[in-house]
Amino acid sequence: MKDARAALRYAKAILNLAKDSKSETAVNDDMSLIAATIAENKDLEVMLKSPIVKVSDKMNVLNALFDGKVNTITLGLFHLLKDNKRIAMLKSIARKYAIVFDHLKHTQAAVVTTAVALTEEIEKLVLDKIVALTGKKSKSRKCCKSSYFRWFYLTCWRCAVRRKYLELFKRIKKGI
Fold first, then answer.
1. Please, are residues 154 and 114 in contact by the beta-carbon 8 Å criterion?
2. Co-location of 91 and 15 in the same domain
3. 76 to each of 81, 116, 170, how far by Cα in Å?
4. Global pTM?
5. In whole angstroms, what is the distance from residue 173 CA to residue 176 CA?
6. Domain end (from 103, 127, 161)
7. Do 169 and 91 share a structural domain?
8. Which pLDDT score is estimated for 137?
9. Which end of the chain has fewer surrounding CB within 10 Å, N or C?
10. Mean pLDDT, residues 88-107
11. Are residues 32 and 73 in the same domain?
């Protein structure tokens, strides 16, 4: 992502604007909707990034898709990006906004990859352990892969735990 730094700046600016109007959660929902819509529809992503398509046509498509569904701050973002000729960055801005919003709310995403599906009870234990380790609330996403026999991965912000090696380290620590 060559525009990651600029996307982060736009996301922070939109979050500050949303905080001022007490609508950061609504804007977060809007950004999730935008990111999901662009991710599901590759033609939309190609159209937004295309230098051949006129900016007015891009704005017409965005207004047709999201008018009445998103907050006025989000519509203002569309116009700001149009003025700055950065509509192509909309998807990355939406993703960065989610990261900045989670940081503001002291939450983090956690991905648990296991060989078998987790039960609700085990998932709750894993989330409690993440809170104990990091001090932040977590949003869990589960992923099952049959190739992960006898161990699991837990990945959260700057933290990855592979259970098989964790047991080995505990044994080494007890022996010392």
1. no
2. yes
3. 9, 45, 53
4. 0.73
5. 5
6. 103
7. no
8. 73
9. C
10. 89
11. yes
Q: Please indicate, yes or no, whether residues 10 and 76 belong to a single structural domain of this protein.
A: yes
Among candidate residues 75, 103, 131, the one where a domain is terminated: 103
Query: Could you tell me the residue range of the domain that residue 51 belongs to?
Result: 4-103
Helix (H, G, I), strand (E, B) or coil at 135: coil
Residue type at 17? L
How big is the chain, counted in residues?
A: 176
Selection from 101, 109, 91, 95 nearest residue 157 by Cα? 109
Task: Find where tokens 């990034």 sit.
Answer: 49
Model pLDDT, residue 153: 53
Residues 82 and 22 grouped into a single domain: yes
Mean of pLDDT values over 3-10:
89
Residue 9's pLDDT band (boundaries 50, 70, 90)?
A: very high
For residues 141-151, average pLDDT: 51
Are both 165 and 150 inside the same structural domain?
Answer: yes
The number of beta carbons lying within 10 Å of the beta carbon of residue 155 is 16
Q: Are 104 and 15 in contact (CB under 8 A)?
A: yes
Same-domain check for residues 84 and 130: no
Give the span between the Cα atoms of 114 and 25, in whole angstroms: 31
d(CA 27, CA 50): 26
- Both ends of the chain: CA-CA distance in Å? 45
Residue 40 carries which side chain, given as an amino acid letter? E
Hey, what's the torsion of the CAs at 89, 95, 97, 101, to 10 degrees? 180
